[in-house]
Amino acid sequence: MTNGSYLHRSLLAISFAAAVCFWFAFSPAFAQQSAPRDPAEPQQGRPHPKVLPRPAGAIARKNVDEKSMRALIDQLVSCGTRLSLSSWTDAKRGIGCGRDYIVARFNEIAKDSGGKLQIVVDKFDSTSERTSGKPLPLQSVYAILPGSDPKLAKTLFIVSGHYDSRPSDVMNTEADAPGADDDASGVSVSVESARLLSKAGANGPGIGVTLGSGGYRATILFAAISGEEQGLLGGYRLLEWAKQQGYTVGGMLDDDIVGDDPSSGAPHRVRLFSGNGEIDDCDSPGRELARAIEEIDGRQNIRMIFRVDRYGRGGDHYPFYKAGLPAVRFTEPLEDYTHQHQTPRSENGIEYGDFAKYLNPSFLGDVARNNAEALRQLAMAPAPPTNAKLTGAVTPDAKVSWSADDDPERAGFEILWRETTEPRWQVYDFAASPGETVLRGVSTDNHFFAIRAVGKNGARSIAIPTEMERRPPPLPAGAKQ
């Protein structure tokens, strides 16, 4: 090799290396991974609060009884149709048949709980376009696990599925409507959650559950409701019923279409829908409930979707969401519409109908476990703080303040923050008492802030975002804000 050829090859290698470095430096992927060129906030360094561990004794996946879930689904499917317009008195066909199977299963669980679980059949009338404008007699089934803390027993956490079904024509009482996925699957999740949690609520630690001091402080309601396909009638009624009983809804988990996961590589994450808030720069209570559930169950299990529901669809969490209450919806990863809202039939080689054979038991069991564990921790937590405020505009420090009643089981409060473009909270600091905390060197502009209560058992309330003080800019005379 001559000196000239060696020099030539060396120059080519250097040129190639420089080109590669230039491409990486200016490529979008590299730019996203490079360190942010923003000033540290705060300049003097963030606090390093001690973060309490989550409550011990998480529900073990192996303790979920997939067989009993599938047995209940098969029983509901055997009713032929569970359309809310169908018979309430026929023991073998119609929605009354479905009610009877659910009540029987809840009664079995109540017996095993030592009688702690209370079963209620709520009878009511409701009217919509899908009842031909006439009052329709309906019945929902509730299993109630009372809270142990007198101050929190009137806080209600709900898990719900609807047991009515529908064929292609939502007014056709004669057509079959198996309704295995929509929504016997959600009912089975609610009922299995009652089984997993009720023994612990009655007699101390139960099926793979550790409660720690105080047990379930809040009340848990496991619901199977009717009238959903006729216009969310059971959901609106459940909201009304809770108010009539004097409950404050701490969280509503709606499980609707949670049994099918046919894509390769299953089981996948369940989707968790939550709507936006209607206050500027402040998320809805439902969005905070979704974040809490994801944090409890893990990002590997929960896929947060920042929509109130699937596009153009609705569920029984919607009445609670519109009432400004924490409400979310669980739904399977990818829906197969040939197996929803379809009268059973075959056309062009395609089988239509919502049958149990299309369900994925492993995925369904995962959803049940995630619901039950979220309910366990939320019902063990202190009450959320109130009156969370953010002040400090046009100053170098953010000031957060909040209120809370005395609670001997509370360890304190976590002050949370996140970039305005980030979906999840991070813990910034810890405060032992309510009041005002000054976040020195933290701009009010660059982050959102929230507060949540932390129990001595490690259970967290949902986060309460701080509302900022309103300081509108000066406007010309006659201009509207």
Concise summary:
The chain is α/β, with parallel strands linked by helices and 481 residues long.
Topology:
Layout: H1 3-26, H2 28-33, H3 66-77, H4 95-112, E1 118-126, E2 136-145, E3 155-162, H5 180-203, E4 219-225, H6 233-244, E5 248-255, E6 270-273, H7 285-297, E7 302-305, H8 318-322, E8 327-331, E9 345-347, E10 350-352, H9 361-380, E11 386-391, E12 398-403, E13 410-419, E14 426-431, E15 435-439, E16 447-455, E17 464-465, E18 467-468
Parallel strand pairs: 3-4, 3-5, 5-8, 6-7, 11-18
Antiparallel strand pairs: 1-2, 2-4, 6-8, 9-10, 11-12, 12-15, 13-14, 13-16, 16-17
Helix pairs in contact: 3-4, 3-5, 3-9, 4-5, 5-9, 7-9
Description:
The chain has helices at about 5-25, 30-35, 65-75, 95-110, 180-205, 235-245, 285-295, 320, 360-380, and strands at about 120-125, 135-145, 155-160, 220-225, 250-255, 270-275, 300-305, 325-330, 345, 350, 385-390, 400-405, 410-420, 425-430, 435-440, 445-455, 465, 465-470. The protein is of the alpha/beta class and about 475 residues long. The strands form 4 sheets. The chain has an 8-stranded mixed β-sheet, sandwiched between helices. Strands 15-12-11-18 form a 4-stranded mixed β-sheet, with no helix packed on it. A 4-stranded antiparallel β-sheet has the order 14-13-16-17, with no helix packed on it. The chain is globular, with a radius of gyration of 26 Å.
Overview features:
4-stranded mixed β-sheet, 28% helix, 8-stranded mixed β-sheet, alpha/beta, 9 helices, 481 residues
